[in-house]
Amino acid sequence: MAKLSKKKIKELEEIARQIRVLSLKMTSRAKAGHPGGSLSAAEIIAALYFHKMRYNPADPKWPERDRFILSKGHSCPAQYAALALLGVIPIRELNRLREVDSMLQGHPDRNKTPGIETVTGTLGQGFSVACGMALAAKLDGRKHKIYAVLGDGELQEGIVWEAAMFAGFHKLNNLVAIVDHNKCQNDGYIKDIMDVTPIAEKFKAFRWNACEIDGHNIKEIIGALDKADKSDKPTVIIADTVKGKGVSFMEHKPEWHGKALPKELLEKALKELGEI
Amino acid sequence: MNKIKGDLLRESFDECLPTRDGYGKALEKLAKQDKRIVVVDADLASSTRSLWFSKHAPERFFYAGISEQNAVGLAVGLALEGKKAFVSSFAIFLTGRAFEIIRQSVCYNNVPVKIVGSHAGILTGKDGPTAQATEDIAIMRCLPRMNIIVPADAVEAEHATMFLGDFEQPCYLRTNREPTPLIFNEHSYRFEFGKGIQLTDGRDATIIACGALVHIAIEASRELAKKGIGVRVINMHTIKPIDRKIIEEAAKETKAIITAEDHQIIGGLGSAVAEVLAEENLRVRFKRIGLRGFAESGSPADLYRKYGFTAERLANEIEGLIRSI
User: Fold this and answer.
1) Over the stretch A4-50, which tens digit does the pLDDT of each residue have?
2) Separation of alpha carbons B268 and A158, rounded Å
3) B245: Cβ contacts below 8 Å, ≥ 6 apart
4) CA dihedral A96, A101, A104, A110 (to 10 degrees)
5) Residues 6+ positions from B58 with CB-CB distance below 8 Å
6) Are A87 and A40 in contact (CB under 8 A)?
7) What does the pLDDT read at residue B285?
8) What architecture does CATH give domain B16-181?
9) Which residue ranges make up each domain of chain B?
10) A136-149 as b/e: b if 16+ CB within 10 A
11) Contacts of A147 in chain B (CB under 8 A)
């Protein structure tokens, strides 16, 4: 476990900021995509790829790597940004998001994009596949970990609980789920559409370790990830986040779930993020 | 006429075994041969016969519980990590309930998971339409990258499963619950993926069949032989990719083609053959035998009689087609 200095925290915060900037730019350019959930997951993705995970950007298929599965696949702009910052994909490719013949599909595609472990985008499937990967690692006595990032709205899918039941029963302690709990889904607020809370209690009932943290606090995220290393059960980290985090007029607004910023709003947003 | 190719077919069709047993037998061999093989089942391993695998490799056998969607997802995760993954349950639950997982995480993702659905067709019998998968071929056939195998007997099922052990593409294998006649001699049978097998000679008509309809087709050809009508029977064990060449030859060399399958007539073997005939502009009398709706509970024999899966019916249809020329 790498030591977390103040300098490192600052670095990771800056990477999260860059993930936000790139996510907004690429979705605006594509005139499509899911900026809201990309912004809420920025610190989680920064902490995993740039600190926690054993990962070699020069060899994204390195067998010993920790696996990252974005089960809430629609937030892939944030993952693409991270992969570009790591140099796994060329940064100029971000300009071709969602275009014909692009390596960057609207949702993650392992056959087109280096660094993607499995196709996600229909909710719940990535988590189930992550369970299978954790099981394979156990079977072979391999030490790498599997990190799956889920949306809170995603928890409404039945397959999530099928997989959670399996992982808890089989004590897959090499599996860590991080729930980006931003309280919004496509059509509105989760509490109005189909409340998924209490989340921790649900996972605990399925024999998981559960903890709740501030999902925009790097130190808390890494603290929770480090703690998960010592668990004898799978761990879920419920990361309290803000949809559209970092841009005042996007925060807590479900309407920015699946809509790109038009040009004038993009400029306003980039100013707030200190980019221009 | 009606000369059987070599000693491929058995002298008599008295001995019966379900095709699911062929799957189970092959899994037992694979368990011992290949440490990379893993099997996921829902809660029907004794029925699908995947339980036979667990006797030899319990550490590589997993119950997902009654959760077919997660069963497929687990198999995908295992396969992505280098395992050779089979997932089995009743055909209707896998291809129906877990359809979207199969579409995205298996086919679109391009992961070589083997989907094995047992209790296919009305041959499933008394459990009734809820357990009888009769649309599974159609819904698997439309999926890009998916391959489909429907064995005609337990010998073929065993050989097909052994083939799948090393097959590096997604595949759907369809098996049955009810014992059906063993038609192939084990020592002379060879499974060739994507190649239909001509079982009888004949110049008057062709029956292209799969699964349990193959032995019925052979019976029909033998009945018609007594009347001087020569029927070529083709066992189309691979529905996708379909063997276009054997269909073209049948269309050119015989006067009529009938397809026979324990499945809805829409989207299955009959549709696959019709597509080839139409695209290749092959003019031949043509008829599909299959289901035209949901069936009901009943013994497999009674259901096969009621829904027209008998040698008599096939023979009558062929006579009718030939007369109309």
Assistant:
1) 999 999 999 999 999 999 999 999 999 999 999 999 999 999 999 99
2) 30
3) none
4) -170
5) none
6) no
7) 96
8) 3-Layer(aba) Sandwich (3.40)
9) 16-181, 197-323
10) bbebeeeebbbbbb
11) none
CB contact, 8 Å: A100 with chain B? no
Residues paired with B289 in a beta bridge: B260
Interface of A with B in 139-198 (CB under 8 A): 139-140, 158-159, 162-163, 165-166
Is A265 within 8 Å of A200 (Cβ atoms)?
Answer: no
> What is the C-alpha to C-alpha distance for residues B208 and B57, in angstroms, rounded to an integer?
38
Q: What is the CATH number of the domain that holds A87?
A: 3.40.50.970
CATH number of B197-323: 3.40.50.920
In a domain? residue A116: yes
Instruction: With beta carbons under 8 A apart, name residues in chain A contacting B69.
Output: 124, 128, 158-159, 162
Start-end of H helices in chain B = 19-33, 45-48, 51-56, 68-80, 91-92, 99-101, 136-141, 154-165, 213-226, 244-253, 269-279, 300-306, 311-323
Closest CA to A70 of A96, A95, A94, A106: A106
d(CA A138, CA B181): 42
Select from B60, B80, B100 the Cβ nearest to the Cβ of A122. Answer: B100
Instruction: Quick: pLDDT tens for B188-239.
Output: 999 999 999 999 999 999 999 999 999 999 999 999 999 999 999 999 999 9
In sequence order, the 6+-apart residues with CB closer than 8 A to the CB of A57 are A86, A87, A88
Count of the separate structural domains present in chain A: 1
In a domain, A243, yes or no: yes
**CB-based contact, A132 to chain B, within 8 Å:** yes
A-B C-beta contacts closer than 8 Å: 97
Q: Does B69 touch chain A (CB under 8 A)?
A: yes
By C-alpha distance, which of B309, B223, B268 is closest to B95? B268
Q: Does A106 touch chain B (CB under 8 A)?
A: no
Report ipTM for this prediction.
0.97
| Beta strand pairing call for B61-63 and B37-41 | parallel
